[in-house]
Amino acid sequence: MKRKSKQIRRLPANKLEKVRDDFKKFLKSLGQKKLLAVGLGVAELLFLLLPSPGYYQTLHLFWQPKEAEKIDIQVPLHSYPVNKTKKEPPVISARSIVVMDVNSSVVISQRNSDLTLLPASTTKIMTALIVLENYQLDQVLTVGNLEENGQKIKLLPGEKMTVENLLYGLLVASGNDAAQVLAQNFTGGELSFVEAMNQKARELNLNDTHFENPTGIDHPNHYSTALDLARLSSTVLRNPVFAKMVATERITIWDVNKAIPHQLFNINQLVSKNLGVKGIKTGWTEEAGECLVAYVEKNGQRIISVILGSQNRFGETEKLIRWVYENFEWEEMKISNF
User: Fold this and answer.
1) Are 116 and 91 in contact (CB under 8 A)?
2) What's the rounded Cα separation, in Å, for the pair 265 and 173?
């Protein structure tokens, strides 16, 4: 059966014009707010026409953002001493004790570490530091008038010697005369040298240390602590010249004319023993008692021990060294990945 097609009835021109006019009036009557609503409706319609979520899920087959790269940050690790056996340190006579791990600055053992005491010739650690920072090793100094007190290497008035050889005399044989020559030739003389020693102590935050002379001769206002001396030693050991000199067992030094020999032997008896001791400095006066700052390298680990006011500085330091290396192990600090 054949359908009849519907015919579209067109409005007469005059009626069509009237519809247009009425539509314009309608739009005008809506106002701006209603036009805004109409606009929002159109926007909603366009949103409905946007591609479905599946369209974007398909896109990643053709393009993917670059994966974030991992940054390899190298963090320096320190190993820390741990007492695996829990064995207590040996009983010793020293009035003040510090044993410190060099790499981590961890104090392994201490007793009265901040007690201010007479440091005796351990003072010469600071004397050497001031010399190394202010003189050239090949600089020639002249021996002047010297006080006759304490340990000496028998320098003669008028003798000319290099700073390097005087440092050997200071650090190996603990010569008070070598210390005096080095201080007297400083700009401003010995008083300025001692002031430089105290200034350096302040810079290094050695707050319980004060010097009155470059030798370590007893004085009421000349003092330090075991902890300050350990920190000072850790600093000076970074200087290879100092480290080499304090580890020297014996050496003969000469004046610049090669006419006067001075044979030196290290007063630190532990340097020649098979304990890994590489210096640093002895000290003794009747009031200070026996003092020793010792630097040890053994099994890949480094420690500094300081004893002040001891009755047996070498024997007691040896006990401390054996206690550390027989009972402690060094463990690396674990750091999480970034």
Assistant:
1) no
2) 6
Residue-level pLDDT at 133: 97
| Dihedral sign (CA 172, 173, 179, 185) | negative
157: Cβ contacts below 8 Å, ≥ 6 apart? 143, 144, 145, 146
Note the pLDDT tens digit of each residue in 270-297.
998 888 999 999 999 999 999 999 999 9
Question: What is the C-alpha to C-alpha distance for residues 234 and 279, in angstroms, rounded to an integer?
Answer: 12
CB 135: neighbour CB atoms within 10 A? Answer: 18
What are the residue numbers of the active site?
Answer: 121, 124, 174
N-to-C CA span, the chain? 82
| 160-184: average pLDDT | 97
Chain centroid, CA 121 distance in Å? 26
DSSP string, 181-198: HHHHTSTTHHHHHHHHHH
3-state secondary structure of 329: strand
The CA distance from 179 to 174, in Å, is 8
Least confident of 97-101, 171-175, 231-235, 274-278: 274-278
Question: Which secondary structure element, helix H or strand E, spans residue 77, and what is its range?
Answer: none
For the structural domain made of 88-329, what CATH number should be given?
3.40.710.10
What number of other Cβ atoms are within 10 A of residue 256's Cβ?
A: 15
pLDDT (tens digit per residue) in 23-51: 566 656 655 555 555 555 555 555 555 55
The Cα 9–Cα 306 span in angstroms is 116
Phi and psi (nearest 5°) for 189? 85, -165
Measured between alpha carbons, how far is 307 from 293 in angstroms, rounded to an integer?
7
CA–CA dist 186, 194 (Å, integer) = 10
Residue 162 tokens read as 């290099």
Structure tokens, 174: 């603990």
Of the pLDDT bands very low, low, confident and very high (cuts 50, 70, 90), residue 60 is very low
- Flag whether the pTM goes above 0.90: no
